[in-house]
Write a structure and sequence with these properties.
heterodimer, A: 547 residues, Rossmann fold, 2 domains, six-stranded mixed β-sheet, 23% strand, B: 272 residues, MetI-like fold, 73% helix, disordered C terminus
């Protein structure tokens, strides 16, 4: 379809929905308030913002689609010169999957598990009559090759469960590009992937966009990622445009304070504390496996943590870092090895531990909303450990709850609220207060900042460091994000396939010479500058050519 | 509460009326339960609003007393089945392992036998009284509640907040009653309405077959049984209690539907 002028032109769009707050009357809320944008042919516009900024909503609006009750209430969405809001259902059907296509965040949840990949990749070509089956399959194979998928000729014969997450995300990109659309909406396509996988998918997407000359909206919360793929960036907050400019300008010369905060958020560095003599937790040669799976998920892991220090456990998904936490907490008794805690041996099984063992070893979870009972108030959630461990009751308990709320910077009036009435960052703070209430010596933090927006996550990390200084509590900090590690760790254990491949003080672990895996991991973390992706890829190609 | 649909309002009104009549039967009934007040199978008239039955007792009074017996037995049996079913179901989900296996297979065993036949066998060897009836019905029905409660609780038991409670060292009691129960309540309440109706139908069926409520007491199923011969002569006395059973079933179902809708919309997100 060749029309001159921009592919996508949104004029002052407004998007709203009806909210159903618990215990109140439903009310209308505005999700996007008067955003305008223009996207030229073959260009990539990055939409960035925290959750609730309206970036996905805008992306879907380019197809005139509203997810679950979301509706466009004003403005114009012009695709290829037509206002698609006026085209009716038939017009939309002709547009979706033909002129505008969509790549979602979770490819694993978006593919039909009962159909082969090829069937799904060429489906929109066939329904829209863009090409016949033979031509479509040929194009799909070309796209598979371009996206660097293994065995492109036969890749389409597989079922979704037979390929990896990164490959599935690339297959979805092939599906979006197959009908030769004018615009592709990428909605956080690499967020669910490990950094080492993300880099390949990013490169594949970038090359595919360049080679096919398609325009794209690239939605993400990670500024470093969007800087690698887009020509322009629009920063959104609370449904409004904060700043819109070229990638170069946004990254190197941000004008608005909010953009400046986003750009500088990951540059924090926590000074390493000197090692202390007596460790609070010693894990000695622990090996563990899950019942009915004959593979050791943890192999001979030995680490130790000193009081008031932070050990960061880093690795990609499946590396065994959460399993290590389960072994230490006693949820998964190790098959071999010993764990010593606070100078005494710790029973492998949860049932064999004393109340003091349980009290002094606390845990904070990744998803704060499922780590709190939705039917309990904040006061009950924080107050229960006080009742349970210290037998505090009534006014005494309430006073201590308020002290803890002050400690996590949440002030008065929160004790009577339910978790549903808190923001993501506040929920995580309440979870921190709950573990703090037990006066622990060690807190295991399992990806506690991964589900949070960058600025909120920064606040949580700062709070954790402050609390460590006040209470001298040690952290076992599990994460896949190296920026977080830099910001909080004193020592680091890098895990890969159940083994600790590198372990030591932060300054030693993050300094060369590296082992292969640590090198790969470190070089895969997106950096917030232009041209980083090309450099890394060029460097890797050179290295593999040299070998 | 302003958004109660019309169907639920109708259901609430009739359910309320039935329960009101059941509770105040002694004051509402114009004649005694076994008082022979007129001729056999009289037509409805001013003295006997619904006519008389097979031996000349006032049908309206018997229906009112029957409502009391029927609803009392059904309520008690439902309560019993919910208490046993949900506690066993929750504990099976929390404790797991052998405890869960043994209970679940036992429940499978009982569910594989049609409960009416099982109830007939048990009741025919025992002296039937109201407490026995309630216990037999309640325990047989608790297998259904067990299944539901276990299914709901298994989903909740893997949530991080339950794990957090276990790591804190909480006992099974706290986990069942404070962590799981409040979150499993909505689907259970919806199921409660449906199970109550099944209990009404169950006790009516048993009485009709002669193994339920025994004379001199009467319930709706029993009244149908006593008057069924009249149908041959064009006497409608047997149809009235049958109609009452149907009306109660439908009105409670309307309420249960509404509760069910509300709870599913809470669980699965609204709108979509």
């Amino acid at each position: 379809m060749t029309v001159n002028g921009p592919v996508l032109h949104m004029i002052n769009i407004k998007i709203g929905a009806t909210a159903y707050p618990p215990g109140e009357r439903p009310r209308d809320v505005t999700l996007v308030d008067g955003v305008s944008l223009t996207l030229a042919r073959g260009k990539v516009l990055g939409l960035i913002g925290e959750s609730g900024a309206g970036k996905s909503t805008i992306g879907l609006a380019s197809m005139a689609y509203g997810r679950g009750g979301v509706r466009l209430t004003g403005g114009e969405v012009i695709v290829n010169g037509r206002d698609i809001l006026k085209g009716g259902t038939a017009g939309l059907r002709a547009l979706r999957g033909r002129e505008v296509t969509y790549v979602s965040q979770s490819a694993a949840a978006s593919f039909n598990p009962a159909k082969r990949l090829m069937e799904q990749v060429i489906e929109s070509c066939l329904t829209h009559g863009v090409m016949d089956r033979a031509a479509a399959e040929k194009r799909a194979v070309t796209l598979f090759r371009k996206l660097g998928l293994p065995n492109p000729e036969t890749f389409g014969d597989r079922y979704p469960h037979q390929v990896s997450g990164g490959q599935l995300q690339r297959a979805m990109t092939a599906m979006a590009l197959c009908p030769k659309p004018d615009l592709v909406v990428f909605d956080e396509p690499t967020t669910a992937l490990d950094v080492t996988t993300q880099i390949d998918v990013l490169m594949a997407i970038k090359e595919a966009i360049r080679d096919t000359g398609v325009a794209a909206l690239y939605i993400t919360h990670d500024l470093a990622v969007v800087a690698q793929v887009s020509d322009e960036i629009m920063v959104l907050r609370n449904g409004k445009t904060v700043e819109w400019g070229t990638t170069d300008q946004i990254i190197n010369a941000p004008r608005e304070p909010y953009t400046q905060a986003l750009v500088s958020v990951r540059s924090h560095e926590h000074p390493e504390k000197p090692p202390a003599a007596e460790p609070v937790l010693t894990v000695e040669a622990v090996t563990a496996r899950y019942r009915s799976v004959p593979i050791d998920v943890l192999k001979n892991v030995s680490v130790e943590i000193a009081p008031g220090r932070t050990l960061a456990v880093v690795g990609e998904s499946g590396s065994g870092k959460s399993t290590l936490a389960r072994a230490i907490t006693g949820l998964l008794p190790p098959s071999r090895g010993r764990i010593r805690f606070a100078g005494r041996p710790l029973s492998a099984d949860l049932a064999g531990r004393t109340k003091d063992d349980l009290r002094e070893l606390q845990m904070i979870y990744q998803m704060a909303d499922v780590a709190m009972n939705p039917r309990q108030t904040v006061g009950t959630i924080i107050g229960r450990p006080l009742e349970f461990y210290f037998e505090l009751r009534g006014a005494e308990r309430d006073k201590r709850v308020q002290e803890l709320l002050d400690q996590i910077e949440m002030g008065k009036g929160f004790a009577d609220r339910y978790p549903a009435e808190l923001s993501g960052g506040q929920k995580q703070r309440v979870c921190i207060a709950r573990s703090l209430a037990a006066k622990p010596r060690l807190i295991i933090c399992d990806e506690v900042t991964s589900a949070l927006d960058p600025l909120v996550a920064e606040g949580i990390l700062k709070l954790l460091l402050d609390l460590q200084a006040q209470e001298n509590v040690a952290y076992l900090f599990i994460t896949h994000d190296l920026a977080t590690v830099r910001a909080i760790a004193d020592s680091i254990a890098v895990m890969y396939k159940g083994e600790v491949v590198r372990y030591g003080l932060k300054s030693d672990v993050l300094a060369p010479p590296f082992d292969n895996y640590t090198d790969l991991l470190l070089s895969s973390v997106p950096e917030m500058r232009l041209g980083w992706l090309e450099e890394v890829i060029a460097h890797r190609k050179m290295e593999s050519a040299g070998n | 509460m302003s958004r109660i649909p019309l169907s639920a309002l109708i259901g609430l009104f009739f359910t309320g009326t039935f329960f009101f009549v059941a509770i105040f039967a002694q004051w509402l009934a114009p004649y005694g339960l076994n008082e022979i007040a007129g001729d056999v199978w009289e037509e409805p008239s001013k003295t006997f609003l619904l006519g008389t039955d097979t031996v000349g007792r006032d049908l309206l009074s018997r229906m009112i007393y029957g409502a009391q017996v029927t609803i009392f037995i059904a309520t008690m049996a439902t309560a019993l089945s919910f208490i046993t079913g949900s506690i066993l179901g929750f504990s099976a989900a929390v404790i797991g392992g052998w405890y869960d296996q043994i209970l679940s297979r036992l429940v499978d065993l009982f569910m594989s036998i049609p409960s009416l036949i099982l109830a007939l066998v048990i009741l025919s060897v025992m002296q039937v009284s109201i407490p026995v009836l309630i216990v037999v019905m309640g325990l047989l029905d608790s297998t259904r509640v067990y299944r539901l409660a276990r299914a709901v609780a298994v989903d909740i038991a893997v949530m991080d907040y339950v794990e957090a409670a276990k790591l804190r060292g909480e006992g099974t009691g706290w986990i069942i009653f404070r962590e799981i129960l409040p979150n499993a309540l909505s689907p259970l309440v919806a199921e409660l309405g449906l199970r109550f109706i099944f209990a009404v139908l169950f006790v009516s069926t048993l009485s009709f077959l002669g193994l339920g409520v025994q004379p001199p007491l009467a319930d709706w199923g029993g009244i149908v049984k006593e008057n069924k011969d009249g149908l041959v002569y064009g006497i409608s006395a047997a149809l009235l209690p049958a109609f009452a059973i149907a009306a109660l079933a439908i009105s409670v179902n309307l309420v249960a539907d509404w509760v069910l809708n509300r709870t599913t919309s809470l669980k699965g997100g609204r709108g979509a």
